[in-house]
Amino acid sequence: MASIFTKIINGEIPCQKILEDEQYFSFLDINPINPGHTLVIPKQETDYLFALDDNILSGLFLFAKKIVPAIEQVISCKRVGVIVAGLEVPHAHVHLIPMGAEGELTFDRAQRANPQDLAALAQKIIQHLK
Ligand code: 5GP
């Protein structure tokens, strides 16, 4: 059965998309740890990030690098932190989380976002993509 994230890629589940190319897809997390929390995924459905082919894994971070400056321009933060967990959704992904302090990188802070706020934020981030 297709993962939730494959259904998002295929448009079967709605999302606030940030960026897509042939191999990768990114969208806002519906339960952000901080505003601007973005997920970056390969379209290839593999559970464990470190089981990805070398070129897909390295390309995932280069794809993320295109998005981080746009997040930083929209969300006031010290930097964009990264979490790799993957215990909830078995489709490899990287969490990009704008942060002001290390202690903020915890799923204990995750809260369901207001859909309108998420949509507005996605539009702002997209406008800052180069
Ligand atoms: P992990 O698998 O790394 O523990 O976390 C999976 C992440 O995916 C969680 O932060 C969760 O909020 C997010 N997530 C799960 N289902 C959906 C969904 O349908 N849409 C979006 N935008 N995010 C989701």
Please explain how this structure is put together.
- The chain is globular.
- With 130 residues, the chain is α+β, with helices and mostly antiparallel strands.
- Strand 1 (17-20) and strand 2 (24-28) form a beta hairpin.
- Strands 1-2-3-5-4 form a 5-stranded antiparallel beta sheet.
- The longest helix has 21 residues, at 54-74.
- It is built from 3 helices and 5 strands, in the order αβββαββα.
- The protein has one domain: HIT-like (HIT family, subunit A), CATH 3.30.428.
- Guanosine-5'-monophosphate is lined by residues 4, 13, 15, 27-31, 39, 85-89.
Outline of the structure:
Helices cover 31% and strands 19% of the residues.
- Class of secondary structure makeup: alpha+beta
Provide the number of structural domains: 1
Q: In the CATH classification, which architecture applies? A: 2-Layer Sandwich
Number of strands: 5
Bound molecules: guanosine-5'-monophosphate
- CATH topology grouping: HIT family, subunit A
Sheet with the most strands, sense and barrel status: 5 strands, antiparallel
Shape: globular
Percent of residues in beta strands?
A: 15-25%
Low-confidence stretches: none
Q: Order of SSEs, N→C?
A: HEEEHEEH
**Helix content class:** 25-40%
